[in-house]
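Q: I'm writing a short explainer about Transposase for a general audience and would like to include a description of its predicted shape. Could you first generate the structure from this sequence?
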Amino acid sequence: AISQPDFNKANGKHTSSCPGISETAVRDLAKRMSRFYEIRTILIGREAVEFEPWLAQALGSAIASFARGLRRDIDAVRAALILPWSTGPVEGKINKLKLIKRSMYGRAGLDLLRARIMA
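A: Of course. Here's the predicted structure. Afterward I'll give you a sentence or two in plain language.
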């Protein structure tokens, strides 16, 4: 599991080992990371009610371009939060098929491909 780092503890440690990074830059990064951890929690918890307020806040924050991307595909995001279905298993099968096809270097025919997939 991914845990949220304690940015207050990390600030001094990271800036002392990287003298070119200012405290302001570290604080800005901490704010951005905090927003990403929030959306991660919303997505994993499937908390559809909390998504709209988060998106409104994110559009006015440092991660506005990321939020605009989510807003562009808002129907897919809402479906991911609300619906129980996932394309994960299908994507895995497609990935396996592409791997097998690449390993065959375009040789052989459909019969061999079918045999390798069914194996």
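A: For your explainer, you could say: The chain has seven helices and no strands.
Q: Perfect, that's easy to follow.
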